[in-house]
Backbone:
C-alpha cells in the first residue's frame, strides 16, 4: 500500500525556493495616503518638540542628567557583555550588509530592482538628514559633558539625534515597508520597532547617548520610512533606466563584430626597378642555357596508327654475324686436312 508523506513547513519553504523566479505583479506600492500624511505630520511635530525641549533646557534635559547619574551600566553590570553585542544591530555597516543581502536575493527572485533601490534611497536620506542635524546642533555626549544641568548644545559634538537608533529604525523598518502581504508587514513592523527600541535603550545603558538623543533618533528614522512613498516614482524611473541600460549592453555584447569594408581605390601601376629587371633577365638566360629547348619531331605524312595496330614485320636474313666455320643448313661439311706432328 502506497502512502504519501505529509509535507512539513520546511518542505513547503524549499518548494517555494525551487519555483522559477517571477516578477510580483500583485504587490502594491505604498502611496502617500491621508493616514500616512497624518502620521508624518505628527512625527515631525514630535521631532520639533524634542529639539525645542533640549534647546530651552527643559525637564527633558534634567531627565537626561538623572539617567546619566544613575549609571545603568553599573547597576546592571551582568548584562554589559550582551548589550555590547546587541548594540551592533544599530550600526550602519553590519546592518546594511545583512539587509542588502536579503533584499538582493529578493530582487533576483522577483526580477525587480525596487527592494535594493528603496534601501539605497532610505540610507541616503538617513545620511543626509541625520548627519546634517548632528553637525548642525553639535551636542556633546554624556561622557564628554562639561557643565552639570546644561544641554551641551553647539559645542562640537555629533550625538543628537542618535544615529544608532535612527539607523535601526530605517534598516529594519525597510523590511516591513517592502513586505508583500499585510500579515508580513504587521509582523515585521513589530519586530523592527522592538529591535530599534532595544538598540536605543542599549546606547543609554552604555552611556554613549542621552535619553533625548534616542527619542529624536526614533523620530528621525520614522520620518524617513513615512516619506518613502514620495520617492517611489523616482525609484521606478531609476529601475527602468537601469534595466534598459542592461538590455542595450547585452545586445551589444551578443551582436557579431562587423569589420568596416576596405576602401576601394584606383589601382596604381608600379614601375620595376632597373637593377631588379637586369637580375631577372640574367636569371632567364641562365635557365635557358641549363635547359635547352627540345627539337621538333617531324613525322612522315600520312595516317599514323598506334603501335598495337601495326603488323609485325619479320626481318629478312639472319641477324647472326657470318662465321667461316659455320655451314649453311643442308650442305655437307668439307673434310679438313690432317696435319701430322
Residues:
Amino acid at each position: 500500500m502506497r502512502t504519501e508523506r505529509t509535507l512539513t513547513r520546511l518542505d513547503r519553504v524549499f518548494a517555494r525556493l525551487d519555483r522559477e523566479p517571477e516578477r510580483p505583479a500583485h504587490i502594491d506600492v505604498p502611496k502617500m495616503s491621508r493616514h500616512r500624511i497624518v502620521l508624518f505630520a505628527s512625527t515631525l511635530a514630535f521631532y520639533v518638540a524634542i529639539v525645542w525641549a533640549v534647546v530651552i533646557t527643559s525637564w527633558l534635559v534634567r531627565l537626561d542628567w538623572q539617567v546619566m547619574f544613575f549609571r545603568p551600566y553599573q547597576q546592571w553590570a551582568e548584562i554589559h557583555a550582551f548589550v555590547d553585542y546587541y548594540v551592533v544591530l544599530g550600526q550602519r555597516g553590519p546592518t546594511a550588509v545583512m539587509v542588502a543581502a536579503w533584499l538582493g536575493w529578493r530582487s533576483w527572485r522577483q526580477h525587480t530592482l525596487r527592494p535594493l533601490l528603496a534601501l539605497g534611497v532610505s540610507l541616503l536620506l538617513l545620511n543626509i538628514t541625520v548627519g546634517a542635524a548632528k553637525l548642525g546642533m553639535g551636542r556633546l555626549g554624556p561622557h564628554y559633558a562639561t557643565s552639570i544641568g546644561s544641554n551641551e548644545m553647539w559645542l562640537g559634538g555629533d550625538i543628537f539625534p542618535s544615529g544608532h537608533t535612527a539607523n535601526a529604525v530605517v534598516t529594519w523598518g525597510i523590511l516591513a515597508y517592502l513586505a508583500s502581504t499585510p500579515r508580513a508587514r504587521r509582523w515585521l513592523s513589530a519586530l523592527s520597532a522592538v529591535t530599534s527600541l532595544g538598540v536605543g535603550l542599549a546606547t543609554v545603558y552604555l552611556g554613549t547617548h542621552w535619553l533625548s538623543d534616542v527619542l529624536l533618533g526614533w523620530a528621525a528614522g520614522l520620518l524617513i520610512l513615512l516619506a518613502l512613498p514620495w520617492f517611489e516614482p523616482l525609484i521606478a524611473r531609476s529601475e527602468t533606466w537601469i534595466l534598459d541600460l542592461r538590455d542595450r549592453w547585452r545586445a551589444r555584447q551578443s551582436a557579431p563584430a562587423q569589420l568596416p569594408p576596405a576602401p576601394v581605390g584606383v589601382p596604381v601601376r608600379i614601375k620595376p626597378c632597373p637593377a631588379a629587371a637586369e637580375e631577372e633577365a640574367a636569371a632567364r638566360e641562365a635557365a635557358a642555357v641549363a635547359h635547352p629547348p627540345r627539337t621538333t619531331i617531324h613525322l612522315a605524312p600520312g595516317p599514323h596508327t598506334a603501335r598495337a595496330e601495326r603488323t609485325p614485320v619479320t626481318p629478312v636474313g639472319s641477324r647472326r654475324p657470318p662465321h667461316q666455320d659455320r655451314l649453311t643448313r643442308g650442305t655437307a661439311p668439307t673434310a679438313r686436312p690432317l696435319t701430322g706432328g
In short: The chain is about 55% helix and 0% strand. The chain has a mean pLDDT of 81. The first helix runs from residue 9 to 17. Residues 9 and 46 are 43 Å apart (CA to CA).
